[in-house]
Amino acid sequence: MKRELGIARCGLACCLCSENEKCTGCNTSECPDKAWCQNRKCSIEKGIDGCYSCEKECHKGLLNKVKPYGFNLFIKRYGINEFLDCLERNEKEGIIYHREGIIGDYDDFDNVEELIAFIKTGIKQI
User: Fold this and answer.
1) pLDDT digits 0-9 by tens, 16-26
2) Residue of higher predicted confidence among 104 and 29
3) Distance (Å, whole) CA 96 – CA 57
4) Where are the domains of the chain?
5) What secondary structure letter does DSSP report for 14?
6) Alpha carbons 99 and 119: distance in angstroms, whole number
7) Cross-strand bridge partners of residue 103
8) 3-state class (DSSP) for residue 103
9) For residue 90, what is the enclosing H or E element?
10) Mean pLDDT of all residues in 75-87
11) Can you give the pTM of this predicted structure?
């Protein structure tokens, strides 16, 4: 885990991303998605670190998907350090962020509360 990369503005885990080894994160001018990313644009306009810092209930951009939406809710409830701690623990226990392409164990959920419980415990509820 590259903890120093932290969390993207949309809530995705840059710290675990294997999509681009040279990625410096969405907070840099080098972000390859900066032209189209609604979450990056909106959070910059609001002057906040990311969607997880916003008070609004929103499903804009990537937040219309369970994983980024659930990650944001987790951070809002428990804080970014707890989120990073859980991701790091889960990775050490074999939970994979990107298994094939950009799909991994955190993508196996249709229910946001089940995803949040999985992040917290590392155990899939049956």
Assistant:
1) 887 667 677 77
2) 104
3) 28
4) 3-121
5) G
6) 16
7) 100
8) strand
9) helix 80-92
10) 97
11) 0.91
